Amino acid sequence: MSNIAIITARGGSKRIPRKNIRLFLGKPIIAYVIDAALQSGLFSEVMVSTDDDEIAAIARQYGASVPFLRQPKTADDFATTADVLGEVISQYAQQGQVFTHACCLYPTAPFVTSDLLKQAFSTLTEKQFDTVYPVQQFSFPIQRAVLLHDSKVQWFQPEHALTRSQDLEPAYHDAGQFYFVNVNAFQATQRLITPNSGGIVISEMEAHDIDNETDWPVAEFKYQLMHNLVHE
Predict the structure, then answer these.
(1) Structural domain harbouring 40
(2) What is the tens place of the pLDDT at every residue in 23-58?
(3) 150 inside domain
């Protein structure tokens, strides 16, 4: 049995230019994910899928391999993560390398740890899921959500307008960090999330979406808090 870590890092980031190699607390943000994958000991190959020479050079500097560059069709704004994963698995297969499991990691997920990857892999194999990925609980009950039309508020689920929060079932969302997949199942469905997917719950402090310039310093501060790096 062999596993591959695939870190998806194209060069054409729009909202935050050069996002995938921007310094995060003094180190390229992609380096954190590479380190976590390497330290987990789960993978016979830790690679970065990119179309960018600078990203490739930095990835190699921190211990990842970049055996080939991503094709233009999987590097544009319309390519999905599943498209990239499929391309990488196919490229390796053409070179005679076949993997049992693959972990597709996002390069801007510095909160990922080797222990979290080990937990995901254990859940994937023990429960025979197609995919396992981290999820976080919504901080407010989604059953009490409202719609807003021309400033008028309406209940999204009116039947729960008077339901106590503690009586509502918790709901979760994708933490946007990684997907650990069974390669055979992925190749059969070409989907990262299937009816046979599993989730591992992480706290609100263990992930942070970085979509704009405001998110960046907030993520750095959370990371420092998580690792006791904040000083008075």
Answers:
(1) 3-137+172-224
(2) 999 999 999 999 999 999 999 999 999 999 999 999
(3) no
User: Residue 229 CB: number of other CB atoms within 10 A?
Assistant: 11
β-sheet bridge partners, residue 131: 181, 197
The Cβ of residue 163 has, within 10 Å, a number of other Cβ atoms equal to: 13
Tokens of 110: 């510095």
CA-based nearest residue to 37, from 99, 93, 120, 100: 120
Q: Which residues pair with 74 in a beta bridge?
A: none
Helix H or strand E segment including 94: helix 81-94
Rounded to two decimals, the pTM is: 0.93
Query: What gap in Å lies between CA 125 and CA 47, rounded to an integer?
Result: 22
Q: What is the dihedral of CA 164, 168, 173, 175, to 10 degrees?
A: 70
Q: What is the CATH number of the domain that holds 72?
A: 3.90.550.10
Specify whether the CB–CB gap between 171 and 142 falls below 8 A.
yes
